[in-house]
Amino acid sequence: MSIQRAAPPNPELLARFAAIVGEKYAVTDPAAQAPYLVEMRGLYHGRTQLVLRPGATAEVAAILRLANETRTPIVPQGGNTGLVGGQIPLAGELVLSLTRLDRIREVDPISNTMTCEAGVVLANAQAAAAAAERLFPLSLAAEGSCTIGGNLATNAGGTAVLAYGNARELVLGLEVVLADGRIWNGLTKLKKDNTGYDLKQLFVGAEGTLGIITAAVLKLFPRPRAVETAFAGVASPRAALALLNLAEERAGGAVTSFELMPRIAVEFALRHGAGTRDPLGAPHPWYVLIELSSAARDGLRASLEELLATAAERGLLADAAIAASIEQAQSFWHLRNLISETQRPEGGSIKHDVSVPVAAVPEFIEAASAAVQALIPGCRPVPFGHLGDGNVHFNVSQPVGADKAEFLAQWGAVNARVHEIVGKFHGSISAEHGIGRLKRDVLPHVKDPVALELMRALKHTLDPNCILNPGKLL
């Protein structure tokens, strides 16, 4: 797509943008801009002349009308927790932060819906649902800072996808500001609406390249009356997969989470994480964190105990602990959620967010681990993630004592090898983090050419001047 880009905004144009939100919410001071310009892993550092913080959808629309008229590129940003650089202004674009659009407009427990603005923090959305005796099941390690708009723009996954699906499956309607400033009001609560294209799905997962989500109608569910959590030691991912199959046979829809972790990940968390303890009496090569939920108050613990006993009889697990309290369950999850951040003190870590068919997860882990260890002798694979939906965070920590910069310089080579193996299993190079800038140049090598043509056609139709998050995704 050939676009005639305007010159960087001059002071007069910047003043016009600032006037839309007011001086207080037009951030020009470099120190105040700094939190908007760095990706949380430090891989990307951006620059901008102006951070705009609108407080209403109408202000977002006015910003985009002016941006489209003047061909001024805009990077939308939520909680800045993205992991692929999609929210960073890498070429000096203006930043449009949506964090002030933070109202929960309505909670409707009868319809089992909640209408949230894009800047609502995920944990606040969860709390609002809980206050109405409902559940909003999207759950991520970053839920204390990530926002609903960012969750939808990246089609976030998390730990409950097994039972409830990705963010895409949790939204009924959207309010979206298009590149030319028009507002599409698709905030419907309808579960059935067969009147043409399902337009909301164009914007979910589009990473702000087709339009800016400003509000959403989200699905709610009855709040579980009973939740049981267990931490089990297993011999291998194959044993963990067999345990998952047994759990789904015995507990059916009650299985809401099923997380896989290697011993090395647990050791990192115990070594570097605050408030941690080894959940079991002896170390095991692999672990699973199992959560069952039910609308019934009674019987769930007995079901979990029976499941674990049967698994032990079949040799699928060596030991297990069932949380005896909410605090102990939280400690299990705390250990799981520390895995990513406690890799940092171990030196460089090359990341992958991939998915393969659930049945192929054990074979994929074996093949990818062997491949990276052959490429970099002594490196330490740390594969963990959501076994129930085939999403593996295949991270690789540097060899002990290695030079961090030299190790990270091999990021591309390691990615290429892992992605090649993902392709052999007909998997995806991005399960839940998106494409952003990190994987943009890889996408043409793994995506169906016709699919890419359709994506580019949609981009040209909805954003012909390419002002929305240029240089990302496509």
Overview of the structural elements:
There is one protein chain. This protein has helices at residues 11-21, 30-33, 57-70, 122-131, 148-153, 161-164, 200-203, 237-251, 263-272, 300-313, 326-337, 361-375, 404-408, 411-424, 443-446, 449-462, and strands spanning 26-27, 51-52, 74-77, 94-97, 104-108, 113-117, 134-135, 171-177, 183-186, 212-219, 221-222, 226-234, 255-262, 286-294, 319-322, 349-350, 353-355, 380-386, 391-397. The protein has 474 residues and is α+β, with helices and mostly antiparallel strands. The strands form four sheets. Strands 12, 13, 14, 15, 16, 17, 18 and 19 form an eight-stranded antiparallel sheet that branches.
Summary, kept brief:
The chain has 474 residues and is of the alpha+beta class. It contains 16 helices and 19 strands.
Query: Kindly state the mean pLDDT as a whole number?
Result: 95
What radius of gyration results from the CA coordinates?
A: 23 Å
End-to-end separation = 10 Å
How many alpha or pi helices?
16
Largest beta-sheet characterization: 8 strands, antiparallel
Label the structural class: alpha+beta
Q: How much helical structure, as a percent, in the residues?
A: 25-40%
Principal-axis shape: globular
Annotation keywords:
474 residues; 8-stranded antiparallel β-sheet; 16 helices; 19 strands; alpha+beta; 33% helix; 20% strand; 5-stranded antiparallel β-sheet
